Amino acid sequence: MGSILVIISGFIPFIDNIITWIYPAFNKMLDARGVPLRSDIWIESIYASIILVSIGGVMQAYKLSYFFPIYAATYSLVMYELMRYGFEINPDWYHRLGFLFMLVPGFYIIYRLIEHIKDLKLQDEMQYNTIKRLSKLNKIKDEAN
Description:
Elements: H1 2-11, H2 15-22, H3 37-58, H4 67-84, H5 91-144
Helix pairs in contact: 1-3, 1-4, 2-3, 4-5
């Protein structure tokens, strides 16, 4: 469960782009201060991402799952700094491209996570069967004595 939270935390900073993609009018909405609502969602998503990564860390998330939040944080920082220093960037195109780049290793990480879970289940089943056999052997020995 911790790994799932960490993976989700990597996607949350892109939620404003996903909303804009689904509902284009969202891009023009402003909050009470006159700031684009999209910016508010982005800032709030960064904070939510930190919380989810922290909870996932406490739940001992799979190490490879930390790729998502590290990638999202690095990507967001670079994009923010480029815009702050005056580079005109159309965030939709770059964010979508960044999101696609995140999916490639993301599928690999999810695959590895599923394989790890299968290995844990197999290990648990082997342990259960071993204990079951040993208890049967103990019963046979006790009956023989």
